[in-house]
Amino acid sequence: MMIDETKGRMADEAAGEETPSPEAEVEQGSFALWDRLRSPRTLISFGLAIAIVLFALRGLNIDLNETWIYLRQVNAWMLLLGLAVFYITFPLRALRWRMLLHNAGVPVAAGRHSWASLPALMEYVYLSWFANCIVPAKLGDAYRGYLLKHNGKVSFSSAFGTIFAERLLDMLGLFGLLMISAWITFGTRMPDGTQIVFGFGALLVVVILTGLAGMRWLSPVIRRFIPHRLHTFYERFEHAALSSFSPAVLPRLFLFTSAIWMLEGCRLFFVIEAFGPEVATLSLAAIIFVALASSLLTALPITPAGLGVVEGTITAVLTLFGIVPSLGIAITFLDRLINFWSIVVGGFILYLFSKRR
């Protein structure tokens, strides 16, 4: 969020010598996206992403001329279907988030012009994805919490607690479907190149579940190690994260999560179909496996949305299914054109004209 410098100085002067609360720090400019984009950390992460891509191109011996030939024969209508399927996930993500907010006791009275209407929540989600695509460390998730606080006067810690719950659902759904698709595709003998993906996914699931279990059963212990001024912030975050999983709506939450990740698989299916069955043929289970592995790698905090890491790894994984590297990089490029670069372009336009940013 680009915060006006003059307002920032006025807020600092008004605060005086008092130590601002975490929520006040967020509101006073912790999410100036333009400043984050120009920060050395972000520039280094983009430089690292470029280096990884160049290393992958050389390591896989990719013929760029052959890749260009593959790209020239793509069926644009199939590519547009992949784009449409991908963007269907955003209203589903917004509806699921509204359920989590309602469970956490955050007022989400719906109305066409409400800050919690479906279009508004979709806008927050989309802008947070845009932030994740241009700055590292998944700061877009915190940016979404800030947007909700800024527009709905909702506690930032409560909003962020529901986003944490959402990430837990995503990791459980993604990793579960990844395991199922891998079992259908490979059986009990997993290729060596897939072990890193499974290891990373399992680590994320363990970390998130451990954090959730710690909040539920070790809350008094955790609070002993938290500075007193952060207790209120943590209490709201903990309450929102734990209360988001209401037993009454858990089946619907898992249904929405499964639908979202299956649509992610369908996105890649249409991208591959755009090259024609005579060029690239993969089973649906294999396609879902590759798509979910790609989504899992975007969680890496070292580059924005896993830029560079995803491209290199997914191209390598495609070669395990007999896809030549030149075709593999063409498939990866078009897939990332949909789920990364379209967000960068569309998110930038929305950011410029949004009244909720």
UniProtKB/TrEMBL annotation:
PANTHER family in UniProt: UPF0104 MEMBRANE PROTEIN MJ1595
Location in or out of the cell: Cell membrane
InterPro entries associated with the record: L-PG_synthase/AglD
GO cellular component terms listed in the entry, alphabetical order: plasma membrane
NCBIfam families, per database record: flippase-like domain (TIGR00374)
Transmembrane segments: 43-62, 74-92, 168-186, 198-219, 240-262, 282-302, 309-331, 337-354
Name assigned to this protein: UPF0104 family protein
UniProt-annotated stretches for the region Disordered: 1-25
Membrane-related topology note: Multi-pass membrane protein
Domain of life: Bacteria
Signal peptide: none
Biased composition (Basic and acidic residues): 1-12
UniProt KW keywords: Cell membrane, Membrane, Transmembrane, Transmembrane helix
Pfam families (alphabetical): LPG_synthase_TM
Species of origin: Candidatus Viridilinea halotolerans
